[in-house]
Specification:
- This protein is 48% helix and 10% strand.
- The chain is an alpha/beta fold.
- The chain has 4 domains: 170 residues, Rossmann fold; 62 residues, Helicase, Ruva Protein, domain 3 (Orthogonal Bundle); 134 residues, Zinc Finger, Delta Prime, domain 3; 105 residues, DnaA, N-terminal domain (GMP Synthetase, Chain A, domain 3).
- It is built from 23 helices and 9 strands.
- The strands form 2 sheets. The protein has a 5-stranded parallel sheet, with helices on one face.
Length: 534
């Protein structure tokens, strides 16, 4: 029967444990000197060797032929523990045996002396899953156990273990494994199994393991089963549903160019190819995080790269982003990935995320505005952004229309031609407009439209300005239905396109004129006697 690689290559001695030198060296010293504690607590993330070290320690406590603090693996005690037939070494899963009754039964059995080996060892995995009553039942025997009894507790969530338990155990923290350590172990296993593992594929598997050697070995087992020949980076991406370094870098380049159509087209191709959307966003998030580290900490950031892209690819993308842009990209990707678990349609969420990243103007928030301003500042500093030049006077003269043929006299030399004035409004325009407006505007606005009412007209250059007497009048009149009707009716009356707006009139006047006088009576020539507020 086929055995999974992570079980086949589980460490059997302290020498086989990868990346936990501080823990294994301390345990070796205790075993050689005989200073054995009655209770141990192994903490750390998954796949870092907690349960493996617990089993090795259980064998070493009962081994009759220790080799430098490690079990020999050949004595009857070691063989029985490896086979799982030793009744004095018990491995208990606290996730399924978390009640107080199970702990009481364990406590009652633990007082008996071992039948086969020197010490009775209880390995309680995921101990944080025990209930509070179960912890209380376990407390007394952990504090004062018989001489033949040793407890080894393992947990991934140290904060859930009561302080009363922590104070009675020797605590050992298992750290995440480095990518180099995982890659070396994967190469060793591939060599032993006859698997042709390419360096790029090994590096990708070590990164995906995220510090857990067991995860890396399981991924290698999966990819080796899917590959007919050598395990390549492309085959790893295909087997695990990943986009890969090249596609991730290309998608990030689309974000830098603000090319929304190209980004959506690339995403659609990856989606059709069966790529996992969560993994795709995770790869983008890791790349943006790497770029942000290199942007803000160029020297020490190299040691903290996640490896989702090569150093050369990361540096080639670095100059295309500002720190504010990278921070915004990282934040948006993180928010989208966090909402995937509750999403009804992940594809729509991912597409909206790409639109927000390629079109910052769609986000009406302070972070998006800061990002756009920082991008313009960087372009100005680099000389890649040039504002449009103001129009030249000479160009304006060249574009001026020639004088009509029936002109009495040509303009004097050196005198700039005058622009022809805008056509004036015909007499009776305002009364006609008021009469027609009263038929179309809502009932609450009709009382404000009369020849001497609180709304006055000002017609300038094809724009009709309705000047309201006060804030209340402006609030009632300044609605789309009124402005659209005023623009349409003015266009029909004047025979040329007219737009409409509404503003509030300032009480300040000049020239001693009456502020209540109809503005249209003065025309463009005297429109400066009354000031208006936008």
């Amino acid at each position: 029967m086929y055995q999974a690689l992570y079980r086949k290559y589980r460490p059997q001695t302290f020498d086989d444990v990868v990346g936990q030198t501080a823990v294994t060296q301390t345990l070796r010293t205790q075993l050689k000197t005989g200073k054995i504690s009655h209770a141990y607590l192994f903490t750390g993330t998954r796949g870092t060797g907690k349960t493996s070290c617990a089993k090795i320690l259980a064998k070493a406590l009962n081994c009759t032929d220790l080799h430098d603090g490690s079990p020999c693996g050949h004595c009857p005690a070691c063989r029985a523990i490896d086979a799982g037939s030793c009744l004095d070494v018990l491995e208990i899963d606290a996730a399924s045996n978390n009640g107080v009754d199970q702990v009481r039964a364990l406590r009652d059995d633990a007082v008996y002396a071992p039948a086969e080996v020197k010490r009775r060892v209880y390995i309680i995995d995921e101990v944080h899953m025990l209930s509070m009553a179960a912890f209380n039942a376990l407390l007394k025997i952990i504090e004062e156990p018989p001489e033949h009894l040793v407890f080894i507790l393992a947990t991934t969530e140290l904060q859930k273990v009561p302080a009363t338990i922590l104070s009675r155990c020797q605590r050992f923290a298992f750290r995440r494994l480095r990518m180099e350590d995982i890659a070396a172990r994967l190469n060793y296993i591939a060599y032993q199994e006859g698997i042709a593992l390419e360096p790029e594929a090994c590096r990708l598997l070590a990164r995906l393991a995220d510090g857990a050697l067991r995860d890396g070995v399981s991924l290698l087992d999966q990819c080796a089963s899917a590959a007919e020949g050598a395990v390549t980076e492309a085959q790893v991406c295909a087997a695990l549903g990943l986009a890969g370094q090249r596609e991730t870098a290309a998608l990030m380049l689309d974000l830098a160019n603000h090319d929304a159509p190209r980004a959506l087209e690339r995403f659609s191709g990856l989606y059709a190819a069966g790529k996992d959307l969560s993994a795709l966003l995770e790869e983008l998030l890791c790349l943006s995080r790497d770029l942000l580290l290199l942007k803000t900490a160029p020297q020490c950031g190299l040691a903290m790269l996640s490896g989702v892209a090569s150093e050369a690819e990361a540096k080639s993308l670095l100059d295309r982003f500002t720190a504010e842009e990278l921070l915004r990209i990282t934040t948006v990707l993180q928010e989208t990935a966090a909402g995937f678990s509750k999403s009804a349609n992940r594809r729509i969420d991912a597409e909206l995320c790409l639109l927000r990243l390629t079109q910052p103007a769609l986000d009406e928030n302070l972070q998006s505005l800061t990002t756009r301003v920082s991008r313009m500042e960087s372009q100005l500093a680099a000389g890649r952004f040039q504002p449009a030049p103001p129009p030249q006077e000479g160009a304006a003269r060249d574009e001026a229309p020639p004088p009509p043929d029936d002109c009495d006299a040509p303009p004097e030399e050196g005198t700039p031609p005058q622009a022809s004035p805008a056509p004036a409004a015909p007499s009776g325009f305002w009364p006609d407009l008021v009469a027609r407006l009263r038929q179309e505007v809502p009932g609450k606005c009709k009382g404000f439209f009369s020849v001497d009412g609180p709304v006055k007209p000002l017609l300038e250059d094809g724009r009709l300005t309705l000047v309201a007497e006060n804030d209340f009048v402006k609030k009632v009149v300044d609605i789309p239905q009124v402005l659209e009707a005023a623009a349409r009716l003015s266009t029909e009356l004047l025979g040329r396109p007219v737009t409409a707006r509404c503003v509030k009139r300032d009480r300040t006047v000049s020239g001693g004129r009456d502020p209540m006088r109809t503005l249209l009576d003065f025309g463009q020539e005297h429109s400066d006697i009354i000031t208006i507020k936008e």
